[in-house]
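To illustrate the input format used throughout this study, we show a single complete record. The first block contains the structure-token representation of the backbone; no residue identities are included at this stage. The design step must infer an amino acid for every position from geometry alone.
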């Protein structure tokens, strides 16, 4: 089985931290949105990530185009954001 083409779906990261109830909610929202597979990025103890994302987590990030979706977001918002990131890459 071949992996999906990189332009078909965004390469996603969920930027989060340990013991973060909002991050747990974001995981549920991503499941409800049927978001494509994503990588969890833990910022705890990583100075550069703490500086960039400390108060913003959770953040959904498109690693290809660099677009970011800050919390709060819902399933409809995630689906719309995913569509926009795919369209911007197709142009």
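Output of the design step:
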């Amino acid at each position: 089985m071949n992996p999906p083409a990189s332009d078909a779906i965004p390469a996603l990261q969920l930027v989060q931290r340990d013991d973060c109830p909002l991050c747990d909610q974001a995981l549920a929202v991503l499941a409800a949105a049927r978001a494509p597979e994503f990588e969890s990025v833990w910022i705890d103890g990583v100075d550069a990530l703490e500086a960039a994302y400390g108060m913003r987590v959770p953040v959904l990030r498109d690693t290809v185009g660099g677009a970011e979706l800050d919390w709060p977001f819902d399933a409809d918002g995630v689906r719309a954001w995913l569509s926009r990131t795919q369209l911007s890459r197709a142009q």
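Structural context for interpreting the output: The chain has one domain: 12-90. The CA atoms of residues 57 and 83 lie 22 Å apart.
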